[in-house]
Specification:
This is Methyltransferase type 12. By secondary structure, the chain is of the alpha/beta class. It has a single domain, classed as Vaccinia Virus protein VP39 (Rossmann fold). It is about 30% helix and about 30% strand. Helix 5 links the parallel strand 4 and strand 5. The model has no long low-confidence stretch (mean pLDDT about 90).
Length: about 200
């Protein structure tokens, strides 16, 4: 399946608030970010930004945003919504393919990693993270946790737990905080997530 086509179809045909991944309340993510220094001139990378309102919340923190998605339709919607804001880069990229962007201070992923199923794609993703995130920078993951959902948006997903993250990040990263979280989507269905925050120390 071509993931770019899949997600373009979803964003073209579905109203934002009817997306299965839509969140009206971003407080869980913001809770993990509140103690980080993101009010100064930091580069924040939002992986799989889609049309999330988390973008609007982070803009209020006056940081430089790099909004990533595999879907050019989603990014075009964001461009139209955010046309009055500066310091935003729109970056269409499959994160399982090699890339280099400006050095990143904070990498946030609530929407990409769990859709990567091929081991090589997963390895490439983590290699991209390590290359693009500054030493001393942070990565926040919110992914489907083990024992929970097995599909999302008609796609199979990979489940994660703390052990899996630690294995992937190795000793290059230090765990700062983790928490299990149950998200209720717009259709009233519960989705079990794990939130983890790591600091890059090497």
């Amino acid at each position: 399946m071509n993931l770019e086509t899949h997600w373009n179809n979803i964003f073209e045909k579905t109203e934002d608030k009817k997306l299965g991944c839509w969140e009206n309340d971003t407080s869980q993510t913001l809770k993990f970010l509140k103690d980080l220094d993101i009010y100064s001139n930091k580069n924040i990378f939002l992986a799989g930004a889609g049309t999330s309102i988390l973008v609007d919340e982070i803009i209020k923190m006056s940081s430089n945003l790099i909004l990533n998605d595999i879907s050019d339709v989603a990014l075009e919607k964001l461009k139209n919504r955010l046309k009055n804001f500066e310091n935003i880069e729109f970056f269409q990229q499959d994160l399982s393919k090699n890339f280099k962007t400006k050095d990143i201070d904070i990498w946030i992923d609530r929407a990409v990693l769990h859709f990567l199923l091929d081991e090589k794609d997963i390895e490439n993703y983590f290699e991209n993270l390590k290359i693009n995130l500054k030493k001393g920078g942070y990565v926040l993951f919110a992914q489907f946790r083990k024992g929970g959902a097995t599909t999302c948006a008609s796609l199979d997903i990979k489940q994660y737990d703390l052990e899996e993250f630690s294995k992937r990040l190795k000793d290059d990263f230090e765990l700062i905080k983790n928490e299990e979280y149950d998200y209720i989507n717009p259709f009233g269905n519960k989705k079990e997530y794990i939130y983890v925050l790591y600091k890059k120390i090497k």
